[in-house]
Amino acid sequence: MNFFKKLFKSYTESSKEEINRQPVNLSLDDLFVHHFINKGGKFLYSTSINEVIINLENILKENNWENITCTDFDLLKITQQLKIKSQDTPNNTIPFFTSCEHLIANKGDILFSSNQLGSNKISELSENFIIYATTSQLVKNISEGLTGIKTHFKGNIPTNISSITNYTIQKNNDDFLNYGNSNSKNLYLLLFEDL
């Protein structure tokens, strides 16, 4: 009788371990959101531009921000609807509202280029970022993101390609590529469903 108990017990334990070892395959958007939130990012999903405007307004009210830096002409249309003071010269004390190149799903990172940052380093900009992105900007990994930039900007590839990888200000990044540059930001993501 003990022999059968041991046999069935070992079978059930091994099947439980096997279930726990099976990889979970998430869609790109679920994978990105999972990593993004685990890194401390704040994420607001929108299905219309009106929702984007309402979410942006709520972010500004929540943080008592009266000014915003925005260098993107298309995003200025959104800030004008809120009647908030907007400037086009980056300042490290005023929140930075911008778009991005890609959202990197396997790490939850956000990829930028000179199209958004100009010649500024991420570490020189405000600690507070508000990012507008669309679901069509989701890519699996950094390699797909760089390929997307190369394909989209044939012959005129932007410079200053970098990413924000930490969404809590106090966290340091040990990546040798970011040595001396703190790219940790208090970050809000306004994700617009465009697919």
Can you tell me about this structure?
There is one protein chain. The protein has helices at 2-21, 28-38, 49-63, 73-82, 114-117, 142-152; strands spanning 42-46, 67-70, 85-87, 96-98, 102-104, 109-112, 128-134, 138-139, 162-164, 186-192. By secondary structure, the chain is an alpha/beta fold. Residues 176-181 have low confidence and may be disordered. The protein has a six-stranded parallel β-sheet with strand order 1-10-7-4-2-3, with helices on both faces. The protein has a four-stranded mixed β-sheet with strand order 8-5-6-9. The protein has one domain (28-172, 181-192): Rossmann fold (3-Layer(aba) Sandwich), CATH 3.40.50. The chain is 36% helix and 21% strand. The radius of gyration is 21 Å and the shape is globular.
Give the end-to-end Cα distance, rounded to a whole number of Å.
Answer: 60 Å
Q: Number of DSSP helices?
A: 6
CATH topology: Rossmann fold
Largest sheet geometry: 6 strands, parallel
- Arrangement of strands in the largest sheet: 1-10-7-4-2-3
What is the mean predicted local confidence, pLDDT? 85
Number of domains: 1
CATH class: Alpha Beta
Q: Give the radius of gyration.
A: 21 Å
Helix content: 25-40%
Shape annotation: globular
Would you identify the CATH architecture? 3-Layer(aba) Sandwich
For the secondary structure, the number of strands is 10
Write a concise keyword list for the protein shown above.
Rossmann fold, 195 residues, single chain, 21% strand, six-stranded parallel sheet, 6 helices
